[in-house]
TrEMBL record:
Coiled coil: none annotated. GO terms for cellular component: nucleus. It holds the Pfam family At2g31720-like. The lineage of its organism: Eukaryota, Viridiplantae, Streptophyta, Embryophyta, Tracheophyta. This is B3 domain-containing protein. InterPro entries: At2g31720-like, DNA-bd_pseudobarrel_sf. GO terms for molecular function: DNA binding. The keyword Cell inner membrane does not apply. SUPFAM superfamilies: DNA-binding pseudobarrel domain. It is found in: Nucleus. Keywords: DNA-binding, Nucleus, Transcription, Transcription regulation. The keyword Disulfide bond does not apply.
Length: 204
């Protein structure tokens, strides 16, 4: 082996030894850089939540805000946006379902969660689309399996859903349910977003 080849081999060995030391000390990573990963590979998909883009407003409409403030409400949270189903509008069922998989934000306190897990109801008030404050509803939890459940607004739901002239609610109307609190007590706003077939939005 010539003198120049020996010098090259020694330099290579020194470089490898230095690299190994840097890796062991955490100064150097052998994983691809962020830039390489971003330009050289297809990025992983973000975890899907199953919730689509909102049809209705991302903030509580102003007339509801005024009503909430008028009764000293606070902590407004969007709970769910959904189409009313035939079951929601059935006089015989008298309940509005809030499916777990469609809930957008946690709106319950830990104590409320425990209460519902004990299969007890929570009395709540509701600001209707007609902007009247309706009392006497109950929030309950219905378990379908150990992991699948819905919350339900029950008891006097029929008085909110019927007659039509009160709030103009029908099957396939898109609604939003917002939660808020008055003196710590759970309350809701029911916002009518879109009427089927009209092509018009109640709020934007």
């Amino acid at each position: 082996m010539g003198e120049r080849e020996m010098e090259f081999d020694l330099s290579s060995l020194r470089l490898l030894a230095g690299t190994a030391a840097s890796v062991s000390e955490g100064k150097l990573s052998l994983t691809p850089s962020t830039e390489i990963r971003e330009t050289g590979r297809i990025p992983k998909k973000t975890k899907e939540t199953g919730l689509g883009t909102l049809i209705g407003p991302s903030e509580l409409p102003i007339d509801y805000k005024d009503k909430v403030q008028g009764i000293c409400g606070r902590d407004v949270t969007l709970v769910v946006e959904k189409k009313l189903t035939a079951t929601d509008m059935s006089r015989g069922q008298s309940r509005l379902s809030i499916p777990k998989k469609q809930i957008r934000e946690c709106f319950l306190s830990e104590e409320e969660i425990r209460t519902l897990d004990r299969k007890e109801g929570i009395k709540v008030s509701l600001i209707e689309p007609c902007l009247e404050v309706f009392h006497g509803l109950q929030l309950k939890k219905w378990n379908y399996t150990s992991k699948i459940f819905s919350y339900m607004l029950t008891e006097r739901w029929n008085a909110v859903a019927h007659p039509y002239e009160r709030n103009e609610l029908t099957k396939d109307v898109v609604i939003q349910l917002w939660s808020f609190r008055v003196d710590g007590n759970l309350c809701f706003c029911l916002v009518k977003v879109k009427t089927p077939g009209s092509g018009k939005y109640s709020y934007s």
